[in-house]
Amino acid sequence: VQVVESGGGLVQPGGSLRLSCVVSGFSLDHYAISWFRQAPGKEREGVACINTRDTYTNYVDDVQGRFTISRDNTKNTVSLQMSSLKAEDTGVYFCNIDPRPITVDGKDYWGQGTQVTVSS
Question: Which of the four pLDDT bands, split at 50, 70 and 90, describes residue 10?
Fold first, then answer.
C-alpha cells in the first residue's frame, strides 16, 4: 500500500494550489476520503471530506468556499483545489480514508504528506 501526496509548495497569500493524492494497493471506491492538515505545533485535523459517490462534500468553516475536494475512482486519486490561500493554511497536507485511516493487516498507512507554505 502506498499513499503519495503531491502539489504543495510556497505560495503568496491569495494564491492557489492543487494537491493530488494517489493511492496504490488499496481501492478507495467504497470509502469516504478526507484531506487532513497538520499545522506547525498542532494536531492533524480534517479539512475536507468527500463521500464514496462524489455526491457530498464537507469542509471545516475556515476553508469553506476556498477549497474544493474531488475524487476520481477510476484512477484511485483524490484532489484538493485550494484558492485564496491564507497564512493559516500553512501546514503538511495528507489524504486518507475517513473516519479511520487505511489499515491492512493491522498496520495504518499514511503518506509523507505535502508541505504547503503560504507566505509573502
Answer: very high
How confident is the model at residue 22, as a pLDDT? Answer: 97
Largest Cα separation within the chain, whole Å, is 44
Q: Are strands 9-11 and 114-118 parallel, antiparallel or unpaired?
A: parallel
Amino acid at 17: L
Rg, C-alpha atoms of the chain? 14
Average pLDDT for residues 113-119, to the nearest whole number?
98
Q: What is the DSSP letter of 97?
A: E
The whole-angstrom distance between residue 86's C-alpha and the CA centroid of its chain comes to: 17
**Would you state the cell numbers that stand for residue 39, as one nine-digit string?**
499545522
pLDDT tens digits, residue range 46-93?
Answer: 999 999 988 999 999 999 999 999 999 999 999 999 999 999 999 999
At 28, the amino acid letter reads: L
Q: Which of 4, 41, 64, 39 is nearest to 49 (CA)?
A: 64
CA angle 53, 23, 71 (to 5 degrees): 30
Residue 111: DSSP 8-state: -
